[in-house]
Amino acid sequence: GTDTLLRVTPSMLKEHRTREDAWSAFSGKVYNLTHYLPYHPGGEKELMRVAGRDGTKLFALTHAWVNIDYMLDECLVGFMVSE
Ligand code: HEM
Domain 6-80 class? Predict the structure, then answer.
C-alpha cells in the first residue's frame, strides 16, 4: 500500500489503460490492477476491459461476491472525484 492516496478524476483514470499501467475504479475506489492482472482467475483480457475506466458494473455482473477491498488493499491508488 501507500500512504499517499490520490484524488482521481475521470480524465486521470483514462490515462492509465495499458497493461503496464492499468487503473480501474470500483465503487469509487481506484486500484492499480497491473500486478494483479496475471493472477485474475477470469484472465487478463477480461480484467483489461475495465482498464482506464469504471469497472463497477462489470464487476457486479461477474462476481459481486468477490471482496475487492480485501484482495487489492495493497493496490489502492485513491478515490474518484469529479473533474
Ligand atoms: C473470476 C477477482 C474484475 C471477469 C474471478 C475470481 C476472482 C476474481 C477472485 C474467481 C471467482 C470465483 O471463482 O468465485 C477479480 C477482481 C477484480 C475482478 C479482484 C477487480 C479488480 C473483473 C472484471 C471482469 C471479471 C472487471 C469482467 C470484465 C471475471 C470472470 C471470471 C472471474 C469472467 C470467471 C472466470 C471463470 O470462472 O472461468 N475474478 N475480478 N473480473 N472474473 Fe474477475
Answer: alpha beta
Tell me the per-residue pLDDT of 30-66, one tens digit each, with 9 for 90 and over.
999 999 999 999 999 999 999 999 999 999 999 999 9
Smallest CA-to-CA distance from 36 within 44, 28, 24 is with: 44
Pocket test for ligand 1, best of 35, 66, 70, 71 (most atoms within 8 A of CB): 66
Looking at residue 54, the DSSP 8-state letter turns out to be: B
Query: Measuring from atom 35 of ligand 1, which residue has the nearest CA?
Result: 42
- Reported ipTM: the value is 0.93
CA 32 to chain CA mean position, Å:
5
